[in-house]
Amino acid sequence: MRFPRIPILALTLAAGWPCAQAQSIARVQPTDAQLDCAGIAAERKTLADTIAAGDPNAPSLARTAAGGAANMGGQVAGAVIAQGGGLFGSLVSKVAGAVAKQQVEERMGPDAEAQKRAAEARERTGFLDTLAAARQCRSDDPSFAGNPLSPEAFGKLADGSAAPAVLAPLSAAAVSPALDGALSPLPATGLLEGNLETAGRPFHVSEFRVLFEVGGTVSANTRAGHLPGVNYGATRSTIRYEVANPDIAALQAIVDRAWRDFNERAAAAGVKLDDPVAVAAQHGEVYPATEPASAPGAPVYAEINLGHVKRKYLVLAPTGMKLHSRGLAGLGAGDIGKRIEWTRANREAIAVGIALNVASLETSGSGSSILRSGSSTRAGEGMTLAAPAGAAVANGHVRAGMLRLAKELPIPGAFARFRETGGYDTQKDAAVRSVQILGALAGVAPNASKTVEMAVDLDGPATARMALAGLATFNEGLVGMLKAGQ
Question: Quick one: average pLDDT of 447-457?
């Protein structure tokens, strides 16, 4: 018996016409010096579409259409084959439909040129984020054009937009040059908000806790969906990243320099800070400082789970400083008796904490595969000053005063490379693909899952310079709030 040819009209329609090769996307463009906040936001939106179009983990609507076209092609093929093959023809038609769907989806996935443009768009987006931070663009005020930049300031941003050709590993020697001299804060008005209730009261800083990100995970997923005659498989995209063997001694030197900067700024502003050791000896402590911070050979970690984003931090403090114990509820109630005594003595103590993130993360979240064509995640370099999740950046021990970070502060510059070291992709596993084709016989739509493992290489001098700029900015804001509250 001779089987008729399976129609390929659906494949032909889905293939589309070739387009002329598009121009490359430069990371820095000649008109960027005149780009205002609205222009930055508009271009970021356009670049996001380019990134999604070239991301194999985020199939476009065209790919969903391709799946529908392939289903139609399989149904047409099945009808033709079934006419001459009976039950066998019906089985072959189902396999043909499944194979056609996979082939069309592969053809409709991003080609090498689209992936290249997506990579360029990511680089461009990173620079625009840096430019937006320098102009102090406001997400809550689209009409704000942004603060002007001098040609010299813009030149520094442009020159620092690319990572060094050769990274100097993070080490005590690599960060040493950044520790000398005065620290220069970034322009950041309205960084902190709140009230520490220190007016007219002697107080001290009980801890200066710095969290430095050393790893994490970003994920996204869609649930399987079903419509009459069409099934949509579930998808999942996960990226895991890690800073391999972070040099704690180098990070300790950065934190020690930031702590010294805070005390220098406080003294210059006339903010009097009591000695915490002397206060504890005379008055006791509402929150005893008993927990060690990270030390060379003895790292202390904190993990923060934000759902689709999880970040892992090294917990650091100035040399010799102990930290407060924390539970699920944070600092908790503390010593109630001491709080009453401190209230009568009109005293206060402040716990300070800030986080430095090294990864810029994006996720498409979760949803139904009927409404979303795939799952999308991205991880790349991007240092930001952030509040520890669910916590204020400064807490009073006695009167529940607190300061919050108004918004995360991007720290401009390049300091790291994220490189892929491994992972797993079900769509590149021949055994899984075979099982999925067999599953199609039972009407089960194939699921897709991809995991990417990434290593983060830090450039020591750039990491130290940027981290200290961010911490100096925080110190300036904190001292300003303390002085205003006197």
Answer: 92
